[in-house]
Amino acid sequence: MLITALHHAGLATLTHTPSPMGFLNDILGRPANERPFLLLVVGYPDADAQVLSPGRLLSTRHVRPFLAALR
Fold first, then answer.
1. Cα–Cα distance list, 60 to 10, 22, 36 (Å)
2. Domain ranges of the chain
3. Does residue 49 register a pLDDT over 80?
C-alpha cells in the first residue's frame, strides 16, 4: 500500500533487496540487532527518467555510494 500511495502522489520508487544486507549496518552505523531487509528509494522522477529492463538488476555497488552520501 505504501508504494501504491507514493505512486499516486507522483513519486517514483525503487525497491532493492540485496543479499546479504550486512553492509547497510556498516554504512549507516547501526547495531547488529537491527536487520534491514529492504531498501526503498523514493523521489520525484526526472523528466527524462527511463525504467530499467527487467533483466538489468542493480548491485550493491550502485546503491552503496547513495547510502554513504546520506550519512
1. 26, 11, 14
2. 2-46+56-70
3. no
